[in-house]
Amino acid sequence: MSEPEPTENVEDHGGLIYTFYSYKGGVGRSMALANVGTLLALGGRKVLLIDWDLEAPGLEAFFHKKSRVKLKNSVESTPGIVDLLEARASSKTLDWRNCILKASLDGAELDIISAGQRTGSYRSRVQAIDWGVLYDEFQIGNYLEELRDQMKAEYDLILIDSRTGITDIGDICTVLMPDHLVMLFVSNRQNIEGCIRVIDRAREARAKLPVDRAKLLVVPVACRDESGSEYEEATRWRKRFATGFKPLLSEWLPREVDAEHYFNKLYIPYIPIWSFGERLPVVESPRELRDPKTIGASYLSLSQLLAEQLDWYAVFGGESSQELKSTQIELTRTRVEYEALKSSNAALTRRSVISWTAMGVVGLGIAGGLLWSGIGVRPVADGPGELTGSIRWSKVADSPISSGRFAPDGSFIGTSSGDGTVRLWDAANGDELMAIKGKGDWATSIAFSPDGKRLATGSDADTARIWEADDGSELLRLDGHKGKVNSIAFSPNGLLLATGSDDDLARIWDASSGAELLRLEGHSGSVLSVAFSADGKRLATGSNDDTSRIWDVSSGAVLLTLTGHDDWVTSVAFTLDGSRLASGSDDRTARIWDSASGDGLLELVGHKTAVSSVAFSPDGTRLATGGADGVVLLWSPTTGNLDWSLTPEQTDIIGAISSAVFSPTGRSLLVTSTDGTVMIVDLSRAAGTA
């Protein structure tokens, strides 16, 4: 294929900004961005990488202490995004060029702007960012637009590492900043549907911006592909990908290239050896670039596609055709359109102030996302019957904590984490008692047997395992699910184990032999949570089909389907007497149901974002809810009154709450977060209360 005319070359008009986005974590987004950026730099492009994942920073770690990479300056002494925002809020001047970390690799250079200078106060600084004030009083929208134009003028390609989920930071990365989106996902409905919703939301919000933008094109990339070992299953999922993303691909892919062929060509395989640590296989093992089945080769294909401005045939070959030419013309038209719009934007920017408050804040949902106020929470220990809380201890692990549970006697706790490690901690002082190294898979959930002698874990490798709690030896591996195992629970007598998975199924297993006893079919989406009733006769499930269900454990029959939530049901829990069921949802509410009739009893509104955890106290007098806003709330499950709150200002938590569960006595809470935090909070009545 011939080189494009100079007037069509992106370098003549300024660089392109690609945001790398994933709806969920554990996809390999940051690793893909780091390796793609490295290849672009090695190919002679001037490249800037930006870490906009302020709550879970660390993009620069991929370039730290590598044998063939030298990172100049340090993140501890060099400012970054948070520092730029702080400077803006204090009316100070900080040139973004002074925030650059330079990575030298094989004669090439790569520029990086980190999430922020990593000092001991970094967490509190992130929490202190008030997006509403930044937009209302400091015209942060105008400022980001200026940065965008300046960076595009100096670089060929700018790659942005975005926060996962639907957040204020995510809106900046998916709506304000990019020319195009690289959307990374894995083989489950949560990822696919979540990505498509975010794209629709971004385009809708982008249309409301007070500045014009060219059309937001999307490059969907399937990650953690295992077609080498599970060919039939991978083929089935690629058909699903093609169906879901076909409308988006048709906007730039040559017409004769169908969506299924696209996903057969462009994907990132799962190679276990590269899942340990922050790795750069394109530098560490350059021979991989010549082997099409390797992860390095997949990064090379993606980097070429981005460098060639989404020109499919420039990367994957093919005979010349009129369709190819028309696609080139369309891409050229898009770039020319951008330049015309850029001139128009410059004129708009010269006006007094662009109304980012009216259009940006409201249109992007920024007004409420990080402002934990107006929630109706009374101060801690304010009023009769109030609780007080004190943090007994707090630790920060090296990887996101996906789940945490107390052992039945309350003497120790267990946590599962994103690096596949299961840890046991002394509940009294937080000392680590044991670390059970997984098989390189994401450990998604954890549960103790009633006698505390065994623990069970789920993983994103479609398996569950049962371990000996004393020495960490593996007792059983449970295979059968065709998707990530999201949740796991022992029955009260310890004879059964329940699992919920991305394959839309819950399963019940013999906890001694590992035999599958029941397959619970009925949900039309991933099963995100499972919980036994105290008598062991019923199992509750929550799903991303927005429903909860209660099943008969002996027959597998559906007893009740609970509807009312407007989004995914992420967590379910029974009271000890089994009379009520709590559910938490991405619709920002928790609900309490009569578990016999299915009647809705209470709707609890308090979290500003998704409710990710629900748990009753042993005596049933409190319900704990944890949210993606980093907040833990305690409610009265009979009146719906909010009795107590634990906020990020008190805990320094900057991630989502993954667990907020009571100790066996009910006098303590175990709180875990996706930022790696593990803490125990002791609860007591306020002075002068009953």
In short, what is this structure?
The protein has 690 residues and is α+β, with helices and mostly antiparallel strands. It is built from 17 helices and 37 strands.
What do you see in this structure?
- By secondary structure, the protein is α+β, with helices and mostly antiparallel strands.
- The protein contains 17 helices and 37 strands.
- The strands form eight sheets. A nine-stranded mixed sheet has the order 3-4-5-2-6-1-7-8-9, with helices on both faces.
- A hairpin with a 5-residue loop joins strand 29 and strand 30 (600-605).
- Helix 9 crosses helix 10 (259-265).
- The longest helix is centred in the middle third of the chain and has 28 residues, at 322-349.
- The chain is globular.
List the main descriptive attributes of the protein structure presented here.
690 residues; alpha+beta; 9-stranded mixed beta sheet; 4-stranded antiparallel beta sheet; 17 helices; 26% helix; globular; disordered N terminus; disordered C terminus
